[in-house]
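step 4 of 6: structure.
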Amino acid sequence: MVKRLLALLLLAAIGGIFTTLVLGYMPDAELNNTARYYADHTAADIGSANLVTAIVITYRGLDTLGEVTVLFLAAAILGLVLARGRRQVQARRELTPVGELLTTGSRVLVPLIMLLGVYVFVNGHLTPGGGFQGGAVIASGVLLLLLTDPLRQFAHTLIAAVESLAGVFYVAIGLMGLFLAGGFLDNRFLPIGTLGALFSAGAIPIIYTLIGLKVGAEFSVMLSDLSDTEAL
Amino acid sequence: MQFDWMKIPYSLLTLFIVVNFGMILTAFIAKIAARVGRRNGIRIWQNYADLIKSYGSRSSITHGAMFYLAPVFRLTGGVGLLLFVPTIYGSSMFSNLSFAGDLILALYFVFFGTLGMALGAAESGHPHAAIGVSRGLSQVTTSELPLALAVYSVALQYHTLSVTAIVAAQQGGFEHWTLFTNPLAVAAAMLAFLGSMMRPPFDVVLAPQEIPIGPPTEYHSSYLALMQTNRAIYPIAKIVVYMNLFFGGAGNWPVFFLKVFLIYMVSVFVGVVFPRFRVEQSIRWFLIWAVPLGILSIMLV
Amino acid sequence: MKEELLKRTVKGPDGVEFEVEPLRDYYCEAAPTVMHGAYIKIVEDLFNWARAESLWILGFGTGCGAIEMRPLMTPRFDAYRYGIQWRPTPRQANLLVISGYLSVKTLKRAIRAYEQMQNPKYVVGLGSCTINGGMYWDSYNTIKRLDQYLPVDIYIAGCMPRPEALLAGFEDLKKLIRTGQAEGANQYAERFDWYKTNQKQVIHDWDMPEYNW
Amino acid sequence: MPNALYLIVAALAASFVLGLLSPKRCGIAYAITLVTLAFMAWVSAGWLWAFVVGGAQPVEILTAGALPPYAINLRMGRAEAAMTLLINLTGLLSALYLKESLFKLGHRGMAVLLVAIMAFCGIVLTRDLFNLFVFFELAAISTAGLILLSEDDRALSAGFKYLIVSQFVSTFLLIGILFAYHATGTLNIDTMATSARLLQVGAQGFTLAFFLMFIALVTELKPFPANGWALDIYESAHPAYSAIFSAAAATASLYAVDKLLLIGGASWYPMASGIGILTFLAANLFALPQSNDRRLLGYSSVAQIGLILVVLGQRDLLGESTSFIAIGLLVSHAVAKAGLYWLSGLVQKRNLIDWAALRGHPFLVFAFITFVAMLTSLPPFPGFYAKWELVRMLAGGGRLALLALILVGALIEAGYLFRWFGYILKREPPTEAVSGEVHKLVPVFVAVLAGWALGYLWGDLSGTGRHNLLLALPLVFAVGFLLLDWLPAWVKNTLAITGMVAFFFLTYTEYDPLRLIFALIFLIGGAITLLASYDAHGRRIGFYPAAMLMVAGMVMLVRAKDSFEFFAAWELLTIGSYFLILRGKHSEPHALSYLLFSLGGAFLILAGFAIAAQGVAPFPISALGQVAPSLAPWVFVLLATGFMTKTAAIGLHIWLPGAHAEAETDVSPMVSGILLKAGLFGLFVLLMTMGKQQLYGIELTHVLLWIAAFTALLGNLMAVFQEDAKRLLAYSSIGQMGYALFGLALMNHLGWLMALMFVINHYIYKSMLFLSVGGVAKRTGTREMYRMGGLIRLMPLSFIAVLIGIIAVSGVPPLSGFGGRWIFYNAILASDYRMPMVIIFLAGPVAFLYLFRLIHSIFLGQLKDELRRVKEAPFWIVLPQMLYVGLLLAFALVPGLVLRRVDSYLNLFFPEGGLHWEGFEITSDYGYWNPVAIMIVVAVIFVSLFAWLLFVNRRAQKVKQFNIVFSAERPYRPETTHFAWNFFAPYRKALGFLVQPYATNFWGTLTDILHTAGDLARRLYDGNGQSYAFHFLVFVVVVFGMGL
Amino acid sequence: MMIHLAMATGFLLILIGFYGALSNRNLLRMIVAFTIADSGVNLVIVAIGYMPGRTAPILDATVKAGDAAARVIDPVPQALVLTAIVIGVGVTALMLAYAYKLYEKKRSLDIAKFTELRG
């Protein structure tokens, strides 16, 4: 009880800080310096219609690389931990069937979801969305499969290979930016093309594709690893 | 530096006079003490007989080198103390070997004999000797303190450490004696004097039956003879220092004899009146009664 | 033999073991020798005079006669005026007064005290008991004739002798000393074996070296 | 130069490639990991080389082909290069160390490790706030991952607690970053820093945003109290991971905070300093009662980082020097802590005491002490230069409270670290041996090398006003013995003696008479004492480096021109002597208290010099005389107290008896006869330059007089009641130092001369006495005097040495002690003060008591059964004693040989009241003294009387020990006949109340209080992850409240 | 006003999440609480970038490259929130892994049970 009271008290204080922040907040009327630069120069420099994508992949590409690495790490650690902890349960538990609806639905939906995922990351530089979103969509397909059969085994090696290769290529592309264009992760060693076209914005579509694959693979691995704990 | 070789016979003369004076004086004092007890006491020449007897002892034993040397140390201490201080003021004949050092030398040379004696006694392996030394050393730490303070006070008063210069400053009438110019220092010093004379109430060091006479319990024969000689010289030598510092020194031998006798009598008076102190009692006594006097004298000088 | 005088094996700090034999290691084994006086007679005469005039008695009361010794220090008798005084340690005393009967047990102590005194030294037997056992002539526990055990220079008869008698005895002893006849210490050394045999006949628990230096 | 981006790219690429590998290809994966880390280290090293040697300018690394405020950029500068090198090397070596563990984890584990190292590099390199956040998260996740993969099950809960806190942290960080972005319109750190300056003062939003960022990043530094999680990690993770967290992660986080402070500006410095100092103190306090090694190291890490945060917070004052100091402290911490964690992996059990297993491995012990010395900022390591600079500037800027707190914390830290070192050398080694795989030893070896190399580097970098200690010849000589330690002892001994004598003859023309005397004692005196060391057999590992370190320190002390040299020398001699003292069989607690008192004293000296210098560097020693009057008395108090800890003034003396008594036979004379003089030298220098000072109207030299008098009295009194011979001598040293101090404090010509006389005399006789007593103790196997007795016949030479020694100590003519007393009396007559003399007069005769006891109980009296076959002390121990006897007699006869020159030199300071030297006669204003005459007179009397006694007593019968009169009985056993135990019982009855162990109790209570406080307060960390979250929130709220 | 509301909601979510994390001893509940807080953070981030009356930062027929600066909202928070979300997912996954391991070892999900390291 004392603990909760103390928690409330502390959070009230923190809340005070937050309140000050909220009350002191005034939305900008004009884009600030950085944002204006992006608004003004993206189209010409990067060739990406989606400003956010330009920022994510190029201007702040290093962040994104880190982000991917975070997922990579999470997947790797999860894999390690759960693999190490996984029992070699031969005698599978019989689970209650998940039901007709889910099984059939997933058969229909999974290919569509996968396709949607691919669409999302391929068009990342044009429309809202991108590699992460696409990857997540793909992983949701995997999730659906897992829901249908929690004990389903995926081709771990394949997924891992996809994931790692995507990562290696990502880094390689970044380096190509360094060698062939203005700097690490500079997308312009490939032609920028015309704004709004599918094959435009230099290497951004490629990068987003790689990210999509990678994120999809990583999420899938994580989900499948976590689902293995079911055997516990 | 040119050494005056005549110093040697003159010093030996001083020594001779003092030894005999000491022999007779101690016997005389013993007689006085005996008279207090309504006895006749020893004969005035008794000390000579005792001394000759000790030298005439045919056999002796030794416990080792330090045991053997201790009486030598002891007597060297006494003779040295006597000779490092001018005996008769204004007499180059009896200024002895005082060119070697000043008052400080005399004060520290006191310990020469004490230390040697303590070592010899200890080598005898007799526990009583060690107990006696333990008591003696314990007592001397505080009994010497008032003297040190008094000497410091006197040296401050006369701005010198030279005994001759201190005596010189006291010439011209008894009112110039330190006794009157710095009575506190003298009082402190005389209390220390009581402590150093091995008489009651400060003679627990010797405690004749409890630890049969303490340190010299194993000494006999010619060792004892040397120590007896010292017993004649040493108190006189010590009194000479006191006399020079506090009582105007002595310009000639009769005055010397008189002053030494009188100073000696102080300890006798006290000794026959008071019973014995334990060691820790005497330590406290000196700290409580004698030391403050010394401190006062330093502050007031 | 007392346990502490038995041979024992001890281990040194370096771990080496060795034997300690107390009577050999802790006590001098030499026998007493006859000590001659000064070569020049006049010197020896002077010494004898001084010895006579400086009698230092070991303060050791062995029997009931000791009670007669005390008055000698008082103003009434005042032995000091004869050059007599008491010393607490045998090293410095030259006169051992056996004051009255001497039990066997005390004899051992008396022997030790006597032997620790330095040559020349004198023994005075005080009271009849030291001469023939006195009233204890048939006691199992006292010695009868002191001179069988220690070289006695002079006996003072009586049971007990009064202080005046003691003073007279000391005066006689002085005469002996002055004439050079009081050589008890040398006598003891000369007839050392005889004395020891006598002593050991009565002292059965002999637990000291032959001669106590 | 390779692009610094490769640091990130290589790691990422490698980790992705690792993902491709089949789990069975562990060998290849491991090779890739090592190569990648090596490559990264090479890149950083290359940059560092370019900056330091090539003088290159910092480089901006752009990404995405756009310019900084718009795209993320990285920067590689000198600091970045150094830090990434540190991180990468730690990573590389840890990876090497982790071989088995990584093989077990497989390729993915290695990838996690690579990413962690990469993230730390990224944190250092990036100049973009949000990118910083990303790298932080990467670091957090990989760290948590590594912990998760540790073998210790307890690590799991620790990792989870970490994640809980990092969730809170990242929330605050993100919100802070976003609001800061909103306020400034940029995410670039440098741009934000500029625009933050332009914001109006009342920009509440930005301040709050900054606060959130600040608190979040500071939490990464494990501030008190929001650091419970970190300690759990340190305790439970694999030591190699802990090494990474402690060295690499901390480095990165610190740099991040530094960057953040760039944005926040000076107004945030006090807060950083406050958090830092609180953490430093609290962590050190909590470390005190620890018994688990890794947790203790964890606390120590936290503390060190706190200290560096303080340094960052003092940037406004430190300015340019900030990086020199901060990086100096940082590399010391990182190298040492990594090294210690690696070492902890070699030790099988976790209690501090179990580290005694290291004892059989000299190199590991050396490594340990190297690391500890680095942590405690001892010379010649970088931390030392940094500490010096920090203190100098803090004092110069008047930030004294902070300075005091830092020093207190540092002292506590030294306390527990060196206590640990004592355990290693002195405790019973556990049965489990140290694991000795090469791949685990290599990192430790590299860390040691790096430590020393950094020491050299920092010395080199330290610029004007400071000096590279590793270039000082004496120190090089001492360190050289480390390399020669495989030689047999006698060869090293010869080398050492030759070196010392040679150095003296090479340099003796450079000293003024006063310094010459000290140099003589330190070098030639040391060489004579070292003769006794020929007695040692075997190789005596560790003895010579320590001894020579001490000698080097003392020599450098005498030769020091400015305060830096002086202080460095002071610390060197302190450490050297500490090692020497620690060698004694039972000296562990005493060596520790010695070190603590010495370091405490050293800190006072450091503070004193720093306050005196007021920022000026170099500060010549002689300039102490020109310190502003308002400061001078304080400087005086600090320095004097510092020096008095070395001379063991009363109250500060409790270390000395144990330290000197428990030391080895030939070490005691060195630390007593020689080392104590260093303190006196300091006092000489102090009084020579500063003279009399008044504080609140109190004459400080007068205070010194009182202290000195009581030291002399109580030192002597305590010596009286000792049963242990060496302790007795040790207490006697306290008393003697009291005398010397007294002479100095008299502030007149003769007083100083007397002090010098004591310096010389005390060196000679105390060395001699310690050697004799040591020799006796060696032969008899005990130091308890009452268990000895009657050894005069068996050890006559030792007896003679002691006899001469005690005559000299007691001041009885005709030996040299008397000269000291004579000058003393003349000096006090010339002094204005009178009261303290009373005490010192009392002290004089008390010396007789213990001296007599010493010689009686050992050599005289009754010989014991088991000692009947004892032999004279070994030749090499006796030889120096006999030399000392000769020296003592020579000095007694002709003191003028030495003193005359000093006497005239002292005229510079006190033109009045010198001595006059005519032939052999010495006169003062008050009295006169002729040593030769005294000697002749005494000798003639003595010899004549002796001849006479020989004549009359020629027939004396030699008797044995039981031939004593025993009231007509006989002694029973020698043990019951030897009167020695509690020898001065009546004296104890009378004055024993004066020597109740008040000081010991005081310091004991103080340490107890510290311990108890630490023990109670650390219960704060109750192990519950939620509590840690509470701590964090409380921390946030409190800091916020303070900030308001 | 809307922005403030959104932002306040975000902060409220954070506080709720925090409270949940502080008051629930079950690991899984704590993890859920943290995801709530994460959502709150993301909401706050997005709110910060919002500007009333503007459109999404995507160039198309309506928003020409030339007048984009006047028409679109700040794209930066949008980019950042993406990263934040992904990182949140990573951390959540890791925490789950921890929870799993802890449960495996201790057969308990009570945070108060894992206090063997302390002091």
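step 5 of 6: annotate
 - The radius of gyration of chain D is 32 Å.
 - Chain D touches chain A through 66 residues (CB under 8 Å).
step 6 of 6: archive
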